[in-house]
């Protein structure tokens, strides 16, 4: 069985996901930028039914209608993005213990890309959620 673990900077909040990633990418939306303090957030989406918290309890911030972001209330690490009603959960790739196993396969919300930030790749670039649709996880 495929399983991955991850957690926050201080180690108080930990999670496990028992499935292969459905999709991976970079999100350039303003909410991800502000939430992370970075010009882009790398994410990996998994089936929500395979995701569980294994230590601690995350805090939740409802960042927009039907969207919540979960993080460690102690160290502030951004961990998870959830879209209400979705069967998927998006994990901040860098919160995974082995982030190198989840290379991004696309860019979303490129209309919000910071002009001085560029990646040296030829990955597909999409306005909004792109192929993930309006209820997509990123």
Helical residues, percent: under 10%
Strand order of the largest sheet: 6-7-8-9-4-3-10
What fraction of the residues are assigned to beta strands by DSSP?
35-45%
Name of the top-level CATH class: Alpha Beta
The CA-CA distance between the termini, in Å, is 25 Å
Based on the structure given, which CATH architecture is correct?
Alpha-Beta Complex
Q: Which runs of at least 5 residues are low in confidence (pLDDT < 50)?
A: none
Helix/strand structural class:
mainly beta
From N to C, what is the helix and strand string?
Answer: EEEHEEEEEEE
Q: CATH topology, what is it called?
A: glutathione-dependent formaldehyde- activating enzyme (gfa)
**Rounded average pLDDT:** 93
General description of the model:
The chain has 138 residues and is mainly beta. The protein has one domain (4-132): glutathione-dependent formaldehyde- activating enzyme (gfa) (Alpha-Beta Complex), CATH 3.90.1590.10. Helices cover 5% and strands 36% of the residues. It has one helix at 30-36; strands at 4-7, 14-17, 23-27, 41-47, 51-55, 59-64, 67-71, 78-83, 88-92, 107-108. The strands form two sheets. It has a seven-stranded mixed β-sheet. The protein has a three-stranded antiparallel β-sheet with strand order 1-2-5, with no helix packed on it. A hairpin with a 6-residue loop joins strand 7 (67-71) and strand 8. The chain starts with a strand and ends in a 30-residue tail after the last strand.
